[in-house]
Amino acid sequence: MQGSVEAHGVTFRFGEKLALEDVSFKISSPFYCVVMGPNGAGKTTLLKIMLGLLKPQEGWVRVYGYDSVRDSRHVRELAGYVPQVVNIDQRVPITVEELVAMGALSKTIPPRIITRGIRDRIREVLELVEIDDPSALFTELSGGLRQRALIARALIKNPKLLLLDEPFSMLDFDMKCQIAELLYQLHKKFEIDIFLVAHELSPCIELEPTVILLNKRVYAIGRAEEVLRLENLTSRSIMFALTMLHSILGGAILGIYLNIVLGMSIPVPVIATLTAIGLSILAAELIERGFAEDVAIALSVSIATTITIVFSFLAAYLSSTAIAEAWLYIAGTSAIATIDDFSRILTASIVVIPLIHTISRELKYIAFDEDGAKALGLSVRFYRYLFYSLIALAASILSSTIGVLVTHVIMAVPGAVALRFSKRGSSSISYLTAIGLMVAGYFFARLINIPPSGGVGIFSAILILIMMAWRRRA
Fold it and tell me: Taking the chain (474 residues) in consecutive chunks of 10 residues, what is each chunk's mean pLDDT?
């Protein structure tokens, strides 16, 4: 049977608790799909919605054209469901044969008798999953054999689709790989579509599955090497990094004030960078201590804004040129782009980008599943401090020449362009866009003798117009 599994705008809440938000995806048969996400990501909820066991408050799911709510009976006829082993009551003394027979007897009426035909079918599916003794008690099986028995129960009804909830749970790695390989063979040999949810992808990685990154909403979908990228897993961290521009501006004005008061020539970019890093670490520490991200960001921005307002007033009171100096940090230097400006951009690229690439794997783990990263022994606090500090350094270098306003464009536009021209996003496209935008803007500014912020601003506007035209064309 050809078709697809499709979700559109699915939102589900348990009371006030949000489980899924605006979940949309479409995967066409044949597929071997892994939905990966941390605890509380909504993976099991999604499976139950697909089976019609839960009704979403918003949106819909269609399985091979059948609506999961309106046509739930048809969906359950097509799909075999494999629950988590931990949800099985281990106190019930049931044999493997009785367990597997449940899949066939569910369509009959009492008394549900295991006929010779059903027994032959049980033997066939047990051979497929490599279980030798149908009379064995389920509770006496090893973890891997229990999982195989549950798969056999789903297989006996000849499903088109297998829905599996955490099939690798509580298994050693070799057994996880064996279960993943078994599912792959069922997929290839019998053309059964596989849709499983898991905390990890490693047991399936060599099987090249379609991967959906889910954490209440869909972060990415595609092949593993396409979706497990830094930009798909750290979007909230990048957006948090943009708020550092408030801190950079406050730090720059603080630096101007200190120069006036102390009568010294302290490099303003140094004070701006240190202020941004300090407030970033403050926000990161609040997050570490359990504060919500939006609360931490709001506090950081509030402190930065207070510094900006207070020291703008104090600096202006002491010097008539202070506001002019501060404005240059907002809108960019009025000087023509120089070789020093190019050197700063090159320095930022050479220092920051390789360092972020070096720690990208750790950032992926932390951004997607912080608790899991801690369980692996990663120092979440250290990597968060380092990441924010690197972003603050890059933003400060940019702000010192092109100003805070244009720096915001520089940091935001490349990611949007990358996502526009690459369906799944690409870090290389994003980096090249950022560097290309800056270099082209600087050269253009130097060519026609305008401030660098003007050159970069013009190229940013051109890119936005191209993106809009491309979107209309698409």
Answer: 84 90 91 86 92 92 93 88 79 81 69 78 87 86 87 88 88 83 89 88 77 86 69 50 70 83 78 83 77 75 85 84 75 61 70 73 60 62 79 74 66 53 48 67 77 71 72 60
Alpha-carbon distance of 59 to 62, in angstroms, equals 10
CA–CA distance, 327 with 324 (Å, rounded to integer):
5
User: The domain 4-228 is classified under which CATH number: 3.40.50.2300, 3.40.190.10, 3.40.640.10, 3.40.50.300?
Assistant: 3.40.50.300
Other beta carbons less than 10 A from residue 246's beta carbon: 22
CA distance linking residue 236 with residue 261, whole number of Å: 38
Please state the pTM of the whole predicted model.
Answer: 0.55
Q: What CATH number has the domain spanning 235-473? A: 1.10.3470.10
Buried b (16+ CB within 10 A) or exposed e, 382-419: ebbbbbbbbbbbbbbbbbbbbbbbbbebbbebbbebbb
Residues contacting residue 5 through CB under 8 Å, at least 6 positions apart: 26, 27, 29, 31, 33, 50, 61, 62, 63, 64, 161, 193, 195
SS3 assignment, position 214: strand
Bridge partner list, 163: 81, 195
